[in-house]
Write a structure and sequence with these properties.
Blueprint lengths: L2 H4 L3 H8 L2 H25 L3 H34 L2 H6 L3 H36 L6 H24 L1 H42 L1
Helix pairs in contact: 2-6, 3-7, 4-6, 4-7, 6-7, 6-8
Length: about 200
C-alpha cells in the first residue's frame, strides 16, 4: 500500500478534514453557553457537588443513546457511499469533498462523544472516592469541572448540526449530479450514434 492510500485512513485523515481550528470554532458557542450555565449554578446552587453529579448523570444517560442513533445513521450513510449513487458522486471533485466531509463529521462527532462519555465516567469514579479537601478548593474545583463537562456535553450535541447539514447537502447534490450524469450520458450516446453513422457510410 502506497503512502497516498495510507493517508486516507485513520484518525489523521479524520482530523485532516476536521482540523483543530474547526474544533475551536465549533467549541466557541458551547463554551459560552457552558460559562453562563456554570455562573448560574455558582450563584444559585447551594451544593455545587450535587449539581455536578446531576450533570454526570445526564451525560451518562444521554450520550450512549445519541451514540447508538449516530452509529445506526452512519451505517445507513455508508450504504449510500457504496451504492451506484455514491459511485456517481465520486466521479466529481465536489462530490468527493462532500462525501469526505460527511465521513469526517460523523467520525469526529463519535470521537468527541466517546471522549465526553469517558471523561464523565472517570470524574464519576473520582467523585465516588469522597476525597476530603478544603471547602474553598472543592467549590472552585467543582465549578471548573462543571464548566468542562457542560462544554463537552453541549459540544458533542452541537456537532450534530454539521452532520445534519451535510446529509441535507447530500440530498441536494442528487439533483445537481444526476443532471450532470444525464448530460454526460447524452453526450456519450450522441458520440456513439455519430460513430455508428460514420461506420455505415464507410
Amino acid at each position: 500500500m502506497n503512502n497516498d492510500n495510507k493517508n486516507i485512513f485513520g484518525w489523521k485523515s479524520v482530523f485532516k478534514n476536521y482540523t483543530l481550528w474547526d474544533v475551536l470554532k465549533d467549541c466557541k458557542y458551547p463554551s459560552y453557553i457552558s460559562l453562563i450555565l456554570t455562573l448560574i449554578i455558582a450563584f444559585t446552587s447551594s451544593d455545587i457537588f450535587v449539581s455536578l453529579q446531576k450533570i454526570i448523570s445526564w451525560s451518562i444517560g444521554i450520550i450512549p443513546n445519541v451514540l447508538a442513533l449516530l452509529l445506526a445513521g452512519y451505517a445507513i450513510v455508508l450504504t449510500v457511499f457504496w451504492s451506484d449513487y455514491g459511485k456517481n458522486i465520486r466521479k466529481y471533485e465536489a462530490g468527493k469533498r462532500l462525501l469526505n466531509n460527511i465521513n469526517s463529521s460523523y467520525a469526529a462527532t463519535i470521537f468527541i462523544m466517546v471522549i465526553t462519555l469517558l471523561l464523565n465516567l472517570v470524574i464519576d469514579l473520582i467523585a465516588s472516592f469522597e476525597v476530603v479537601v478544603p471547602i474553598a478548593i472543592s467549590k472552585y474545583a467543582n465549578l471548573i469541572t462543571v464548566f468542562f463537562l457542560i462544554t463537552f456535553l453541549i459540544f458533542s450535541i452541537w456537532l450534530l448540526k454539521d452532520i445534519a447539514i451535510n446529509i441535507f447537502n447530500l440530498g441536494q447534490a442528487s439533483s445537481i449530479f444526476d443532471n450532470e450524469i444525464d448530460e454526460a450520458a447524452e453526450k456519450e450516446n450522441l458520440h456513439m450514434r455519430q460513430k455508428q453513422k460514420k461506420m455505415r457510410k464507410e
